[in-house]
Write a structure and sequence with these properties.
Elements: H1 4-8, H2 19-31, E1 37-38, H3 39-46, H4 50-62, E2 66-68, E3 74-77, H5 79-90, H6 95-109, E4 112-119, E5 122-129, E6 144-146, H7 151-158, H8 162-169, H9 185-198, E7 201-204, E8 211-217, E9 228-234, H10 240-245, H11 247-272
Antiparallel strand pairs: 1-3, 2-3, 4-5, 4-9, 5-6, 7-8, 8-9
């Protein structure tokens, strides 16, 4: 059976025996891009005739799967395609296994924990379990937090180049939620340098007053991670020092989640072979 990688090595071809499947194959190419793209970019990448690709892009744009940028020549992923990706993450068959890891982490540290993914310029909660403690902040799966004031959001941003971050954040103003929210790009860049150096990130009452958070990325071999793991608690019992004490437990849980994702990928690869 042909793989996506094999097909991309053959210019002029997209996988699929029907027009619908060839459109889906083009979406696979588009989904891998971390910046806007033009018709000419796709012509050079696929080797397909410009009129053919232009017609395919028009179809995808009309269905909300991609959207045209302000200059009229470049495209990016559309709202409908992003919503599809988010729904798949929320309802993944690995959700149950991930939830077990999350529950074990909550039992170990005694605080609320969540699994997140990067969506646009926001962090989306894929799963969350609340602490049994009487004082806690309620956030549910599907909730969204701007990346610049989220611990795992800073980690996702740290995987980008400075140019990619500035391009993304230029269209997503750094809104101020608390006195601690970072609202200047230069200050955020300095924070991200610390995040890259440390391998973890903190949200020090930057989104909600009184809420402290520490997060790490779920390791993803050979590519950027799109899954984060974090512990959140009221700052009165979860100081920075205590948050850092929980890093070993947080990293063990992140490795367990990475193992689940690897096993799932291996199983899907066997099914497709």
């Amino acid at each position: 059976m042909k793989t996506t990688a094999n097909l991309r090595a053959e210019p002029g071809r997209l996988d699929g025996d029907t027009p619908t499947m060839r459109l889906f194959s083009l979406l696979e190419v588009i989904a891998q891009k971390d910046q806007t793209f033009s018709l000419q970019n796709l012509v050079e990448e696929t080797g397909l005739p410009k009129p053919t690709l232009h017609r395919m892009l028009q179809q995808l744009e009309s269905e909300g799967m991609i959207q045209r940028e302000g200059d009229g020549r470049h495209y990016s992923t559309g709202v409908r395609l992003r919503r599809l990706a988010e729904t798949l993450l929320l309802n993944s068959t690995t959700h149950g296994a991930r939830h077990v890891v999350l529950r074990q982490l909550v039992e170990e540290v005694g605080e609320s924990c969540n699994i997140t993914a990067f969506s646009g310029s926001e962090v989306m909660y894929l799963d969350r379990l609340e602490s049994p403690a009487p004082l806690r902040f309620y956030l549910h799966p599907g909730s969204r937090v701007p990346a610049h004031c989220s611990a795992t959001g800073k980690l996702f941003l740290a995987q980008m180049t400075p140019a990619q971050r500035r391009r993304l954040l230029a269209h997503a103003p750094l809104e101020k939620f608390t006195a601690n929210t970072i609202t200047e790009l230069d200050a955020l860049e300095r924070e991200i340098e610390d995040v890259k150096r440390n391998g973890y990130a903190l949200d020090n009452e930057e989104f909600l007053p009184g809420l402290q958070c520490v997060g790490v990325l779920v390791p993803s071999k050979g590519r950027h991670s799109n899954m984060g793991l974090a512990i959140q608690a009221p700052i009165m019992r979860f100081t920075r020092e205590k948050a850092l004490q929980y890093l070993p437990a947080l990293k063990r849980a992140a490795e367990a989640l990475a193992s689940i994702e690897r096993d799932d990928s291996s199983e899907r690869a066997r099914e497709e072979a």
